[in-house]
Amino acid sequence: MKKVLIAIDYSPKSEIVAQKGYALANKLGASVGLLHIVSNISYYGMQYPSFLGFSGSALPIDPSLPETLQNIAKEYMVSAKAHLGDNTVETYVETGDTADVILSFSTEWKADILVMGTHSHSTLEKLFMGSVASNIIENTEVPVYLVPVGHKN
């Protein structure tokens, strides 16, 4: 294994995914890529507590400004990389459908393993909305390491 791709979203639980993925990469002696996809613009307007060393945006976000979202996502990735404390970590910000982008990017980047979190959603929610993790597992050519981060109700 030479390349570990860690897909993180914009939520505090991404810290767990990033740390577990980074630890796995270190054990394997692999290089690390952090991938973030700008897809659900509603996340960026939320004021989460600081995570991965990122304190969020102090300004309200205008969803009609994709450049603003890209800049916030890039700041987030710079902060996440600094939080891991490894200058060799590569960061990527892409836009599009989360599952589609992860599937195509992991193949193009030639990842040996993809690390991502799972979220515990209700069965009804999964039925109607689907699951990014499920979609990726069903369609990927890259092995996937899933980090459980959801709450059980």
Can you tag this structure with a few keywords?
153 residues, alpha/beta, Rossmann fold, 5 helices, 5 strands, globular
Structural description of this entry:
By secondary structure, the chain is α/β, with parallel strands linked by helices. The protein has one domain (3-148): Rossmann fold. Helix content is 39%, strand content 20%. The protein contains 5 helices and 5 strands; from the N terminus they run βαβαβαβααβ. The chain has helices at residues 14-28, 66-84, 98-108, 123-129, 132-139; strands spanning 3-7, 31-38, 90-95, 113-118, 144-148. The chain has a 5-stranded parallel beta sheet, with helices on both faces. α1 (14-28) links the parallel β1 and β2. α3 packs parallel to α5. The termini are far apart.
Care to give the gist of this entry?
The protein is α/β, with parallel strands linked by helices. It has one domain: HUPs (Rossmann fold, 3-Layer(aba) Sandwich).
Largest sheet entry: 5 strands, parallel
Number of helix segments? 5
The termini sit apart by 36 Å
CATH class term: Alpha Beta
